[in-house]
Amino acid sequence: MAVSNLDLLNKFRPHKVYKRNWFVGLFNFFVLAVFWFAIIYGATSITTILFAKILPELLIQYGLFPLAQITFFLAPIAAIMVLIPANATFLVLNERKILALLTVRYGTNRVGPDGFLQTLADAVKLLFKEDNIPGGADKVLFSLAPVVFFAPGVIAFIPLLSVATGNSGPFIMCDLSIGILFILAVSSIPVIGLVLGGWASNNKYSLMGGLRSAAQAISYEIPMVLTVISVILLTGSINLMEINDGQVGGILNWNIFAFGNLPLLLHLFPLGTGSIVGLYGLAFLIISFILFFIYIISAIAEVNRIPFDLPEAESELVSGYNTEFTGMKFALFFLAEYTALFIICLLASVLFLGGGHLPCSVETEMAILNSLSNAHIAGDVYDFGWILPSMVLMIKAYVLIFCSVWVRATLPRLRYDQLLAFSWKYLIPFSLVNIFVVAILVSIK
Amino acid sequence: MTSQVIQIAIFTAVGFILGGVLLTLSLAIQKIFGISNPTKVKKESYECGMKAFHDTFIQYDVKYYLFALIFIIFDVEFVFLVPWAVIFDIAANKTFLIIEAFIFVFILVLGLIYAWGKGVLEFD
Questions:
Q1: Are A278 and A267 in contact (CB under 8 A)?
Q2: Domain end position, chosen among A118, A146, A165
Q3: Per-residue confidence band for B1, with pLDDT thresholds at 50, 70 and 90
Q4: Does A284 lie in the same domain as A192?
Q5: Which of A5, A50, A317, B15 sits in a 20 to 30 Å window from B77, CA-based?
Q6: Exposure string over B52-75, b if 16+ CB within 10 A, otherwise e
Q7: For chain B, how many structural domains are there in total?
Q8: pLDDT digits (tens, 9 = 90+) for A254-298
């Protein structure tokens, strides 16, 4: 029997090196994820029902009609305010657990069964931590920066909610006709928060972190928006709901597979005069893959994640822009960062991966939807048709988040000049050319 | 159209207000239940071992500013390209649209090439 490295290590080391079956770890993580999903879903839907149904009815009983209307109108925002902290709490745990799995460790396993409540404990700790403002800091801007960083995450969520719930109940007012433009516009505001936080804390590390993050975020926003413009060219809409509904009916209708031009590939064989149409479809397929990868790269860079996490490179900048922040201000930065990642992944799944639609035929999906919702109270919050699209969208986003954590566990950090050069010298010219290739392809349809 | 503008304005305002309220509330909780023990050392800004010898409200590299300048040009470009992209699918004369957008983007790309040649994109 061969002696493995692990056995050798165990022989000479005082501490036992634990072998962990990766499958058991993965299974444990899966169970944990299911429980957290239940918590997130339960909390969000209870809040929504409270704000959209129970409170307005109560207020109308007491004759306060305008107040009831306001409560109904605020239901999506209340839902977001519950969803974002709950979701970010799980996202942090999720990331630590996946990183542990990928680097063969246990990860968090102290608070709760298998570390189930670890991040909740962290959140409570952060809430009661001393709020320290360093001397010489600009006090107003220092307190304002976390809010400026956090609020856009809340706002950018709104158009995504209409997709996630299939425009049902109180969420119908979230459906903006300029959805994508709104999200892109709002999600570039957090940079101001980073620069403010970095500048106001009177710390060189923070200042460098803030400046770096500003330069990086604006550099990678350009290829990202250019990619989205290509998607708009191909789908002909800036309404998220329309893009989402254009991808209904099976995995092959998803935008990542040639933007609905996949059937053209059938003309490729047998080779002959007809195969030009097939080549045309192939061009669409290649373009859609390129667009997806440019989007993912620039999105990961935009939310400052490894391998693009230069603003908070701990080996050179301590913690970047949030070095001086403590307690709840730091927590808000943390929360907003993970929310930004979640929004980016949600947007990627809406734009490319079929959004809230199941990878099955329209009839099957409609059957599932009808079994979930009660026809006699359609349009109501108790109409549970929204569960399906939101669940599907959430799972797709979490698959993308898993990939981003995988990237984090795999790749080292870039050098700063390489980082900016990659955007300005490769991604931007490439995506500019891409727009015209897409335009020409669409025009010869 | 107007209702959408109002909607966006309300959502934006409520988002910022809620962010502020969340921070204020949690700071209040911290004030009531948490500890607060500010000392002289704690109030110093973080430095690796040494005392920080002056504040950071100083001049910094002009490179960041130049990046921001080029970015603004491209950012304005998006605003004009988005409506172009939306109507492209339904437009009759697509060749004209492509040539038009090409000239528009080409002028901006000339600016990028100029900046590239001047060494703005090099970080040292």
A1: yes
A2: A118
A3: low
A4: yes
A5: B15
A6: beeebeeeeeebbebbeebbeebe
A7: 1
A8: 888 877 777 777 777 777 777 778 888 888 888 889 999 999 999
Query: Is A130 in contact with A330 (CB distance < 8 Å)?
Result: no
The CATH number of the domain where B67 resides is what? Answer: 1.20.58
Q: Do A221 and A159 fall into the same domain?
A: yes
User: Is the ipTM value over 0.90, yes or no?
Assistant: no
Cα separation values, A5 from A10, A13, A37, A104, Å: 9, 12, 39, 15
Q: CB distance from A199 to chain B under 8 Å? A: yes
* Residues 9-38, chain B, touching A (beta carbon < 8 A): 10-12, 14-16, 18-20, 22-23, 26-27, 29-31, 33-38
B123 found inside a domain = no
Q: Which domain holds residue A35?
A: 15-118
The tokens of A404 are what?
């981003």
Q: Are residues A87 and A172 in the same domain?
A: no
Structure tokens at A214: 């500003």
pTM, full prediction? 0.88
List, for residues A5-16, the tens digit of each pLDDT value: 667 666 665 555
- Nearest chain B alpha carbon to A188: B75
> Count of H helices and E strands in chain B?
4, 0
- For residue A63 the two structure tokens come to 């004759």
Same domain, A104 and A142: no
pLDDT tens digits for A225-242? 999 999 998 888 888 888
- Do residues A397 and A335 share a domain? yes
